[in-house]
Amino acid sequence: MTELVVKPEVALGPFELGSSVRTVVQYIRQNNRTYNKAITKFNEEDPLGMNICIDLVNQGLELRFSPVSQRLELIRIYDLTSVRLIYGDSDFSSRTPTFLSVHSKFGPTSAGHYSDSKETYMLHYPGITFVFSVPEELLQEQKIKEGKMPEFDSVMLSCMHMFVSDEKDPRLIKPMPILGKPLVLLPSQGILFSETNSMLIFGNTPQDALTILGSPQHISYKKSNPLSIHERLHIRDKAEVRDFQYDYFYNYFDIGLDILFDAANHNIKKFIVHTNFPTHPNFNLYQKCNFTIVPPAAQEMKHDEKDDDGFEDFDEEAKVITPEMKWPEISECYGKALTEPFFMPPTKDNPFGGSRYYAHKDIILEVMENDYISSVTLFRSHDY
């Protein structure tokens, strides 16, 4: 039986509240002898419509992640017989906990809440809520309906909820921002890292990327290009000359960013960011990128000059594109694509359908069948 330490507002065993779904899935895979049955649940048609849930069946745990931030916001323990729960210096779940034993272990708190429809009583502490099943013979107790539970030893604990509580109402879950550096994508120019007011632009070197982002988690080489047939003839001829020189990626999985460098001059030629939606084959390879895209209309210069770093001014109050927007809304910002979209059919390992690729000036947006973006690629037309 798995033993887990209860730390309200912090963690249950190794599962820290606020962790990214990518971090948690990696841990589960690395410890698959213990967590050998995990079921992922989400809304395929609208991935933002419900939590991403990982059900650890053999431990009776459900890990719920915010669909927007993709961070662990709630841990639900629904089978108290499948785990040993440690609080303080002792196990409080070896016998089915009762209202009396929980109240004795965790101490006094404010009156709870009774749900008439579910016939349950909820007792709240900071970052933890205990849900008790009320026996039929006690349902008419007026004190219970008023939230004043007498210390009956027959009122059994049915499940627990663990979370980071909101400052205004400790019974509610505190919203969590998206992890990772906020990025502003400026097609034709590059990426602005707004937290540090630093920038990577097309033509920068690996040293520039290392200075701003540090070492990548991985370096991979681009040995094939499935869209090369659509490239201009002189570009294909150039590629044939460089058969043994491969462009290479710096992969920053923790911020959902890939940077492609040219093999010949070692300059940045492409940026790719990822949304990490569960309806894409690359789910959990990257952490969700915290980006906004400034469309062309907002990039119009407000002054007849560029700033010191070579970036054109853009209207910071204009409507921007975010990973939470669907394609119809995005196309309103961007207008009609330069060409008809390319379609990539699904592979046998992908049950969610193919992707459509919409090309605008110096940007390609990969859109899934549910109309959400899965990746965004920035490039400069004259490099191709």
Polypeptide structure, described:
- The protein has 384 residues and is mostly beta strands.
- It is 12% helix and 31% strand.
- It contains six helices and 25 strands.
- The strands form four sheets. Strands 4-5-6-7-13-12-11-10 form an eight-stranded antiparallel beta sheet, with helices on one face. Strands 17-18-19-20-25-24-23-22 form an eight-stranded antiparallel beta sheet, with no helix packed on it.
- β2 (11-12) and β3 form a beta hairpin.
- The longest helix is centred in the first third of the chain and has 10 residues, at 21-30.
- Mean pLDDT is 86; it is low at 301-305.
Which parts are unreliable, with pLDDT below 50 for 5 consecutive residues or more?
Answer: 301-305
Measured on Cα atoms, how large is the radius of gyration?
26 Å
* Secondary structure tally: strands: 25
Using the alpha-carbon principal axes, give the shape.
elongated
* Straight-line N-to-C gap: 58 Å
Tally of helical runs: 6
Strand order of the largest sheet: 4-5-6-7-13-12-11-10
Strand content: 25-35%
- The residue fraction in helices comes out at 10-25%
Oligomer: single chain
Give the integer mean of the pLDDT values. 86
The secondary-structure class comes to mainly beta
Biggest beta sheet attributes? 8 strands, antiparallel
